[in-house]
Design brief:
Layout lengths: L1 E5 L3 H10 L4 E3 L2 H6 L5 H14 L3 E5 L5 H14 L3 E6 L2 H12 L4 E6 L2 H10 L3 E4 L1 H6 L4 H15 L4 E4 L5 H10 L3 E4 L1 H6 L4 H14 L3
Parallel strand pairs: 1-2, 1-8, 2-3, 3-4, 4-5, 5-6, 6-7, 7-8
The structure holds SN-glycerol-3-phosphate (G3P).
SN-glycerol-3-phosphate binds next to α7.
Length: about 220
């Protein structure tokens, strides 16, 4: 399973990258706004900065919802860097746009996916990635990991090439469950990635080793 970081924060992207385990980055309008990125020029510069930091796929989301404007915006985003993947919402015009981008050699990530049916449509349109939001599904009383299992199974049976990118990760256990469910990628907040490091027995064991090392 590949690890992406789900943030537009350059310091966090750098920290995850320095761990040596980072394969890519996903952003969304909420994450960009959180970093105070406003206006086309600043947005383009920020994506360039992320591409300079990480040599992997970087999802950049369109802000429009009608076919013609999604295409116009997506082409500009894709021109920023070869690693940019255009993130398109799971709506009717979004699916049409994903098909257009696929036919024109631009890779896409279909976002805001909450059902297997939506994932099938995105795969049929040729999306490179489909992003089910598992945390938001859990938040509403359903089972996000179960959806990942179902989509992974369908894509395998049907031979779809679209990769399953588990998004809206809330904790380290989500990452473990997505790995077990066969997700191709998990896009995570930095704290969930760092949470994988933690075990109290590791801390106790290391403290004892360091104490005994003084006697060596
Ligand atoms: O980038 C999309 C997704 O990961 C958003 O997560 O935490 O806002 O549900 P969240």
């Amino acid at each position: 399973m590949k690890f992406f970081i789900d943030t537009a924060n350059l310091a966090q992207i750098k920290e995850a990258h320095e761990l040596g385990i980072l394969d890519g980055v996903t952003t969304n309008p909420s994450l960009m706004a959180k970093e105070g990125i406003r206006g086309e020029e600043a947005i383009t510069k920020h994506y360039k900065d992320i591409c300079d930091l990480v040599d992997g796929d970087i999802s950049a989301e369109v802000l429009s919802t009608d076919f013609a404007t999604i295409i116009e915006e997506g082409k500009k985003l894709a021109d920023i860097h070869p690693n940019i993947v255009v993130k398109v919402p799971m709506i009717k015009d979004g699916i049409k746009a994903i098909k257009w981008f696929t036919d024109n050699g631009i890779r896409t990530n279909c976002t805001l996916v909450f059902s297997a049916g939506q994932a099938i449509l995105a795969a049929k349109a040729g999306a490179a990635y489909v992003s089910p939001f598992i945390g938001r599904i859990d938040d509403s009383g359903w089972d996000g990991v179960q959806l990942i299992e179902q989509i992974v199974q369908i894509f395998s049976i049907q031979g779809y090439k679209t990769e399953v990118l588990a998004a809206s990760i809330r904790n380290p256990n989500h990452i473990i469950q997505c790995a077990a469910a066969g997700a191709d990628i998990c896009t995570c907040p930095l704290e969930s990635i760092l949470g994988l490091l933690k075990h109290p027995l590791t801390d106790i064991g290391l403290a004892k080793f360091l104490e005994d090392a003084k006697k060596m």
